[in-house]
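Example record

The entry below shows one chain as it appears in the dataset: sequence first, then C-alpha cells.
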Amino acid sequence: MAKNNKQDKLLIASKESFFNGEEKEKLEAELKLANKKIAFKDAEKGKREVELIIANKELVYQNEEKENRAAELIIANKELAFQNKEKEQRAAELIIANKEL
C-alpha cells in the first residue's frame, strides 16, 4: 500500500508539473502578445509624435505669416488714413479755390 501511495503521489506531482508547464506556456504566449501590443502602441505613439511636431511647426509658421500680414495691414491702414487726410485737405483747398473764382 505504501508503494501505491508513493506512485499516486508521483502521478499527482507529474500531472501538476505538466499542468504548471501548460500554464507557464499560456502565460508566456500572453506576455509575448502583450509585448507585441505595447511595441505596436509605442510605434504608433512615435508616429503621432512626429505628426504633432510637424503640425506644431506648421502652426508656428502660419502664426508668423499672420503676424507679418497683420503688420502689413497696419502699415496699409496708416497709408490709407494718410491718403484720406490728404484728399480731405485737397478737397478743402479746391472748395476754397472754387469760392475765390
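Notes for this example: The two ends are 145 Å apart (CA to CA). The chain has a mean pLDDT of 89.
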